[in-house]
Design a protein that fits this description.
The chain is α/β, with parallel strands linked by helices. It is built from 19 helices and 14 strands. Helix 7 packs across helix 8, helix 12 packs across helix 13 and helix 13 packs across helix 15. The termini are far apart. The site of pyridoxal-5'-phosphate has 17 residues, from helix 13. Homodimer. It is found in: Plastid, Chloroplast.
Length: 494
């Protein structure tokens, strides 16, 4: 069909062809199946190696390696594993190729590239078939210019918040879980008897993500939750998604110990972040940050840390961008911990000489209430390699910082509050300069934490001044009472 536009004003002799796009047959998964398999997918590969080998720079030479199709969580000596990519194969295609490829996939619906994670598939799990992928088009979260918070509260011009909590289950755990559950989906196809269910211990967000992705794929899931230590929203998520929810009378560290024993002796696959597959998904948030700044690197990235897999995942994402030439430097990383669960902070203060687990005390930042972080070695590598810093925030500091941010249009979870409180301290000490481009990673949606935010604004948290409390004002159904209340708040109004 051709449309002659020559009779329209201002359009001389132009003929515009407006072919209707041809509708492709089948659903998007079937369409992906018919497409030639990822043109270059078979050229790349990834495998497990001991994390120690990566840390010592001998990853490629390590003789201890495992296929990603094996069910293995630990190296022979009991250490962590790492997913290692064939960087030489990836480097054959220059930075322009990768930038253009990744940019071309943003915001599309073609399977599976509508996902921010799988739009980077060659850098995540290159050998996984598109058919095996379990995705809800996670990632691609907005990078928010925190204009008023930066200017008015922190004296900064270039402050950004990466809104990773604007995601399917309301936290950035979706990024890693799509990768883990996709690989599990493949394993179950290859060896159905080997993986009959997937389990995790959780401070809330991991279980929400695991149960949602398993439900999307029809895979049974089991979650171990510390009784009375997670928010109501986090508890109802796995319940709604049909997981077996075990509420156990212990803390996160206790749940973790139990799930390790259970997965060691049954065909239940371990989904905790000890499992290095999840970090491959989490790292894409760092790649996305570079991409959103048109492949430029911010000066600082501040991440709340508990089990400490994520501080390393962000490091790994930035490092891949650097090593493959997409960017020209690394940011400085800041790990922000709750003072009530601060073993990394304490080790940092001692110059990394000595690490000792702590008994984590209750914190509103419940997802990082972890005293014995499984990824401690990963975190120390990430921080020492980036001239990184560890900061801490008390309960009052983290709730005030979250609430201060909310007053500029955000709706922060307490973990984001920990990161914002850390930023405040680093600004006050002059470590971060007014013009430094700084990204705060917001890790969960504030709506998951409505209970504690309501308690803050009601002034109901014992011992907390709640500087930014803004409780609702009860008024009679009466015009003058309503006007009095308005004038009390806005004293300049007549
Ligand atoms: C998991 C989580 C974190 C911390 O990530 P770690 O890898 O455990 O350090 C921070 N915030 C939220 C909301 C989380 O769910």
């Amino acid at each position: 069909m051709g449309v002659d536009l020559s009779s329209r004003p201002g359009v001389a002799h132009a003929t515009l062809s407006v072919e209707a796009p041809k509708a492709e047959a089948g659903d998007i998964r079937e369409q992906a199946h018919r497409r030639a398999p990822l043109e270059k997918g078979h050229l790349f590969n990834a495998r497990y190696v001991p994390f120690q080998a990566v840390a010592s720079g001998s990853g490629r030479a390590s003789e201890e390696t495992y296929s990603l199709d094996e069910v293995v969580y630990r190296s022979r000596d009991g250490g962590l594993l790492d997913v290692e990519h064939d960087m030489e194969a990836l480097a054959i295609y220059g930075p322009e190729y990768w930038r253009a490829l990744f940019d071309s996939r943003i915001g599309r619906t073609s399977w599976p590239f509508g996902s921010g994670v799988w739009s980077k598939k060659e850098w995540v799990l290159p050998q996984l078939g598109d058919d095996d992928i379990v995705s809800m088009f996670e990632g691609n979260s907005n990078l928010f210019w925190a204009e008023r918070l930066g200017r008015e509260a922190l004296g900064m011009r270039d402050l950004w918040v990466k809104q990773c909590g604007n995601s399917h289950t309301g936290s950035f755990k979706d990024l890693g879980m799509t990768v883990l559950v996709s690989q599990v989906n493949r394993l179950r196809r290859l060896r159905p008897e080997a993986v009959q269910a997937v389990g995790c211990a959780s401070t809330g967000d991991t279980s929400a993500a695991l149960s949602a992705y398993c439900a999307a794929a029809g895979i049974p899931s089991i979650v171990f939750l510390p009784a009375d230590k997670i928010s109501l929203a986090q508890l109802v998520q796995p319940i709604a998604n049909g997981a077996l929810v075990l509420s156990i009378d212990t803390d996160f560290d206790g749940c973790m110990k139990l799930i390790k024993d259970v997965t060691a002796e049954s065909p239940i696959y371990l989904a905790n972040s000890m499992n290095s597959l999840r970090l491959e998904g989490q790292k894409t948030a760092a790649i996305e940050i570079c991409q959103q700044f048109d492949w430029a690197v911010p000066d600082w990235v501040i991440i709340p840390g508990g089990n400490l897999g994520n501080i390393y995942a962000f490091y790994k994402g930035f490092k891949m961008c650097l090593d493959l030439g997409l960017v020209d430097r690394m940011p400085r990383l800041v790990c922000a911990q709750a003072a009530n669960a601060n073993p990394l902070y304490q080790a940092y203060k001692k110059g990394w000489e000595h690490f000792e687990p702590v008994k984590a005390k209750t914190t509103f930042a419940s997802a990082i209430q972890i005293g014995d972080p499984v990824s401690i070695d990963r975190a120390i590598l990430a921080l020492t390699a980036t001239d990184g810093i560890v900061e801490e925030a008390t309960e009052e500091e983290l709730m005030d910082a979250a609430a201060r941010g909310d007053l500029t249009g955000m709706f922060n979870c307490p973990h984001t509050g920990v990161a914002l409180a850390a930023l405040t301290k680093l600004r006050e000490r002059g470590v971060i300069a007014p013009s430094d481009r700084t990204v705060v990673v917001s890790t969960a949606h504030g709506l998951k934490f409505a209970q504690s935010k309501v308690a803050y604004h009601a002034g109901e948290i014992p011992g907390m001044a709640a500087t930014h409390a803004n409780p609702p004002v009860p008024v009679r159904e009466d015009l003058s009472a309503v006007m009095d209340a308005i004038r009390t708040k806005f004293s300049s109004m007549r």
